[in-house]
Amino acid sequence: MEGVSSYNMMEGLVHTGVSSYSMMEGVSSHSMMEGVSSHSMMERVTGGWSPQVTDRHPWLQLDLRDRIEVTAVATQGRYGGSDWVSGYLLLFSDTGRAWKQYRQEDGVGRFVGNVNADGVVHHKLSHSIRSRFLRFVPLDWNPSGWVGLRVEVYGCAYKSDVADFDGRSSLLYRFNQKSMSTVKDVISLRFKSRQAEGVLLHGEGQRGNYITLELHRARLALYLNLDDTRLRFSSGRVAVTLSSLLDDQHWHSVLIERFQKQVNLTVDTHTQHFRTKGEGDSLEVDYELSFGGIPLPGKPGTFLRKNFHGCMENLYYNGINIIDLAKRRKPQIYSGNVTFSCSEPQLVSTTFLSSSSSFLSLPATLSASGGFAVRFQFRTWNPDGLLLSTRLALEPQRLELQISNCRLRLTHHMSAQQKEEVSTGEGQQVNDGLWHSASLSSRGLQVTMTLDNEPSSTMELGDHMEAGDSLYFGGCPSLNVSGCENPTLAFQGCMRLFSINSQPMDLNLVHQGRLGDYKELQFDTCSIHDRCLPNFCEHGGQCSQSWSCFYCDCSGTGYTGATCHNSIYEASCEAYRLTGSSSGYFSIDPDGSGPLGPTQVYCNMTENKVWTVVTHNSTDPVRVQGSTLQKPYIMKFNYSASPEQLMALVSGSEQCQQEVMYSCRKSRLFNTRDGSPLSWWVDQGGERRTYWGGFLPGVQQCSCSLEENCMDMNYFCNCDADTDSWANDTGVLSYKEHLPVSEIVIGDTNRTGSEALYRIGPLRCYGDKSVWNAASFYQESSYLHFPTLRAELSADISFYFKTSAPSGVFLENVGLKDFIRVELSSPVAVTFSFDVGNGPVVLAIKSHVPLNDRQWHYVRAERSVKEASLQVDQLPLRFLEAPSEGHLRLRLNSQLFVGGTAARQRGFLGCIRTLTINGVTFNLEERAKMTPGVSAGCPGHCSGSSSLCHNSGRCIEKNSGYVCDCSQSAYGGPSCKEGVSVSFNRESSVTYTFQEPFSVIQNRSFQASSVYRGNSRARENMAFIFMTTQSPAMLLTVSTFSQQYIAVILARNGSIQIWYHLHVDRRPDVFTPRPSSLADGHLHRIRIHREGKDVYLQDMNLKYSLSSDTEFISIKSLTLGKVTVDTMDEEVMQAGSKGFIGCLSSVQFNHMAPLKAALLKRASSLVRVRGHLVESNCGALADSTIFHSQSGEEFGRGRGPLRNASQSNYAVIGGVVSAVVFITLCVVVVMTRFLYQHRQAQRDASIKEKEHRTNLETAYRREAAYQAEPAYRTEFHLHDSHSSTLNDNREYYI
């Protein structure tokens, strides 16, 4: 290398005699390729590199003569021909032996090459490479030609100060004074390590301060504490860890930035921000900082922990170059056994790329002592894979060493049916990505297996053992050679340091074809990649991985999906009501898939409005005395939701309010000479508010002033009259931008006889502004535009639409190359398409019925780094897995267009409502008001929030009214409100047999590796109402063809039990939510929701965790009542034999309603009824019954003082007596009129009942006929335009 040009000048590195290499049948070919000095000159260079066509794995290697900081590369095809490379890998190395693959942003390793021989493709590296050797490995080339390559490298010279630590050495930097106290620290260094453990940096002080930076399990751990003596000892220390696989013998950069307690830790390209523990802001370190280990005081070179073995360079502590001081032998540096050049060990790895076809065959050398001994090291993420297989001299015996269920297992196959096995311990998992040493040796009649430094496992043999001719590492050849068979999967990972009978194996000879054989291997590099760094699992999901992909465990997070992106909870109480729920405690997630987590609220659904109630820590009346303005009484309210959750709830609600009660005796609110308030409250934003309940913001008045009924009209509040008797100022705060009340301050209860009693009620909100936020599009060229969609790694888009147009774009957002689009591509198809840099991806769902039928249809599209999915109504879900190696980030830069495109073509004509992206609901109505061709809202009967159809019923527009489709509901009737109820006796049962549905359509091949077949999204929803006095009793059971089952029973004591038997070879999970008896003759509602391992009893506000997240596979049937099968546990069978005596109502399992199916008398192949069933009305009783299974809480209005609130007053008593007499007379009059009308109503009721049964039967028959069709079924109840509930008969369609 004779010269280096600056990258900023876009000039290439000048090469003189740069060598190119390729492996051609094991022979290293060498040719000369003259370098060029600029990018423009590259186009005029003739020739180029091209390997022989017989080369198995060609590559081009550049020796830059010294370590260079490479910032860009460029490629070109071979001059004057049809040879070029269309895709390649870039590897780098300091030694030319141990290589590392360069990965671009998003972890993409593949570089896009050329499409012809003449064009130049330039790649600027997202992070520079500091290395001497580069290797270009062609992956694809011109299919009509061959590999041809010209390359140019851009960069600049790189100089560094290097120190080598041999595992016993250290650098000690001694301060000029006794201790060093700093408020700000900046520490930077680069290192490469030969081990997974070792201390890089340590310093501590006598007051409990310390800083330690060390490698632990190949991850970097930073311990930092400021003045907290409780954390001085190691047992209390908490580390911040970052990165992984740092023992790969390649350089890694570290930067620690601290200002007071705020710390940034950066390793390579990953940064973690955190706040350190401790009471102070300064780091006080006594005497010295040590690098490479933690020496004992006064004994340099003696370490408490394992010291660092490797190299460091450019080590800076607050601007001081530590290595430079050591090289110049400055007195403040002690450098024991440290050298200043980096020694390069020859630990060369080999990567086994395929889990089905990779293998390495090595000859079994003879052992002088008899037997054999094999040793090697390996690292992997996979829980299964073959490590070693060899045929024994005594055929057909063979030995297999494999990873099975994350543990090491040795198997001696003596015959096809006979084998013997030994395994390592439960805690010795080997699929952690770390290097593990495995050895296998035979001596006499024993064979010994050893893992790392753990105790060996020994297997006794019946005869002496000698290995066959060959040892197969990692897998077996495709042909059954010498009895080698892959037990499950081939090994996918890295191996190194092979030794057979104490002779090390040179893999260069294997690579050159001079020793053994191989397939699907990558030599001289370990291509292991941590797919959990960064962690793409959202909302606290736990990341695990195999060699080729990662998985997210969402258990306990409240979220689901491939990356734990989707909330399992509804966004509001209004949404729960639309699913058929009744009043109770619920977890809501106001921002859906956004960063805010779920919170628990009480949903009051007893009124026309659905109220969301959020409590706080002080809802009872509180008495206050002795407060002044100088020392006021202050109460801060802590709500059951966070401030961010409260803000989201309030902003998404139509109206919010909070009752405020203030009872007083000689305690004023505002009555002062200068007008300054004596008491006030603080809103959600921390602002002081001086208006009281019932009045408008900004004015120091109370509700009595607004109503003009204050006890003294000279004042604006009753309490400001300042009387000796009790007065009251109670009202409702309803300006929602100020709610909830976060604090109250009372400052006038310190005078003689002065006293106050206050109560701040819970926050109460109703309405969900997002549910019916809609816009109508009348022109194809019209659209709504919003800011650019911020969804680089994940995006979920959901909305409803109705239209009569055959096609149109719902939304679109584009970037330079990337885009995302959802559209109605035909009258029966919805398409979701996007491109993140890997090429366009298209998912489409076709419906059996037209989607432009002017009815509401639901669309949900989701894209994550793991997969993409599309859902339309209840049609089968379609999804597509993302490639394991590819771009991840969706980069957009234009506006988001809704209802059209930037080109004003293919616009949507119709209505769109409830558009939600990543938990944020877009205000379509507000934007539509200022956009031509678009109007706010949507015409039609089914376009409002009046909820004409209940309990998951679907509203369908008709020319003369609307229809409720109750087919997806367990309810019936005109509005899907009538519970379908049946009375059972002991012998009664209803069995619904499932037709195995194709519930998911997959755009992928099932020939992928079965490693982690998982991320199954086990989910069940069950709901029913029951009433009985019998116990034990069987309520419901669901069984599968694989003997799994779910059972809900009443035990002997009447308590409800829920049984989940998901594994045949394990005990079932049994939950008893309440020990009290539910066989009490009262109605009880049960709603069970399972998501993975989590089971939620929503009406009881309980959550349980299963021992497994296994999904129900091949559901066979659901049975209500008596069960006679003998494949269940004894207690369940006993309850099943007793059957059920009582009433069952509104039974639903997922989208199936078995009681409704039984009453409709559907095909006998689906429904089987045994015993006597009688239609009941307990479902109607349920609407007016308080369910005893709910743990409700009454949120009443505030009451007056408990004592001393008033004096005995005969006038008040007389008024009460008069009121009672008047009410009694009114009741007598009403009852008289009621008895008169009741006799007439009895005759009418009998006629109406017959008519209703006739209509119900007709509707059931209509639904049964519709069910027989291949399209989805519908239960219709017609509401004509003359219905009294509809005042406007006009109807508009778009």
Structure description:
With 1294 residues, the protein is mostly beta strands. It has 11 helices and 90 strands. Strands 57, 59, 64, 65, 66, 68, 69, 70 and 77 form a 9-stranded mixed beta sheet that branches. Strands 10, 12, 13, 14, 15, 19, 20 and 25 form an 8-stranded mixed beta sheet that branches. Strands 26, 28, 33, 34, 35, 37, 38 and 40 form an 8-stranded antiparallel beta sheet that branches. The two termini are 72 Å apart. Residues 1-11, 13-45, 231-235, 298-303, 997-1016, 1189-1217 and 1238-1294 have low confidence and may be disordered. Belongs to the neurexin family. Residues 162-342, 349-526, 773-938, 990-1178 form the Laminin G domain. Residues 528-565, 939-977 form the EGF-like domain.
Write the layout of secondary structure elements.
Blueprint (H helix, E strand, L loop, with lengths): L17 E7 L2 E7 L5 H4 L17 E17 L8 E9 L6 E2 L8 E3 L7 E22 L8 E8 L4 E5 L3 E13 L1 E10 L4 E7 L5 E7 L2 E8 L13 E3 L9 E8 L2 E6 L2 E6 L1 E2 L4 E9 L3 E2 L2 E5 L5 E9 L2 E2 H6 L5 E4 L12 E4 L6 E5 L9 E7 L5 E8 L5 E7 L2 E7 L5 E5 L12 E8 L2 E6 L5 E4 L6 E7 L19 E8 L2 E2 L2 H5 L5 E3 L1 E3 L18 E4 L4 E4 L5 E2 L5 E2 L5 H6 L5 E5 L10 E6 L6 E4 L7 E3 L8 E4 L6 H10 L2 E11 L13 E4 L5 E2 L13 H5 L19 E7 L9 E4 L8 E6 L2 E4 L7 E4 L6 E3 L7 E9 L5 E7 L4 E8 L2 E7 L5 E6 L10 E8 L2 E6 L4 E5 L14 E3 L11 E8 L2 E2 L2 H5 L5 E3 L17 E5 L2 E5 L5 E2 ...
Parallel strand pairs: 14-19, 66-77
Antiparallel strand pairs: 1-2, 3-7, 3-8, 4-5, 4-6, 4-7, 9-23, 10-20, 10-25, 11-16, 11-23, 12-13, 12-20, 13-14, 14-15, 16-17, 17-18, 21-22, 23-24, 26-37, 26-40, 27-36, 27-39, 28-33, 28-37, 29-30, 29-36, 30-31, 31-32, 33-34, 34-35, 37-38, 41-42, 43-44, 45-46, 46-47, 47-56, 48-55, 49-54, 50-53, ...
